[in-house]
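Practice problem: Peptidyl-tRNA hydrolase
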Amino acid sequence: MKMIIGLGNPGKQYEKTRHNVGFQAIDELAERLNAPVMQTKFNGAYTIIHRPEGKVMLVKPLTYMNLSGECVGPLMDYFDVELEDIVVLYDDLDLAPGKLRLRQKGSAGGHNGMKSLIAHLGSDSFNRIRIGIGRPQGGMKVSDYVLSTFGKEEQPLIDEMVEKSASACITWLDSPFLEVMNNYNGA
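Answer key — structure tokens:
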């Protein structure tokens, strides 16, 4: 089974915020893959899709960003999913809106959701897709910025990156992640 995890915060007030692009990518994937309705267990919402390549689980941790590992770790244990069989989608301040970066491992880079995942999984060697949201301007606090919505000029770039990240995940279902990286990095 392959597991695709989108990081975000639960609740209507966070739906369109910068911090929730991972959830948006999961929603895009669910639509494209005709996923069954998500069920809630293990502090998260998830669904399992049966495909010719095998089973695919889409996951949205409902623990709030900083505790994402509390959902993902137990889910991986219960369904016996290996580290090389996951991809994590999340927002990245160090990338401009409209930029994607795919990696097979790395530090949390200051992202609290990734810190939680690394702590609960005991490794930083797992596939990830970073979706650029840019840095705050004019002295805005990072915590306020990531919980803000995108500006009118940014939204088309974000929509495109959500679509591209979903396409990268679909490509990964039957291709090595290294190949997916080569095709989508810099997109």
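Discussion: Residues 2-184 form a domain with the Rossmann fold fold (CATH 3.40.50.1470). Students who identified this feature from the tokens alone can consider the problem solved.
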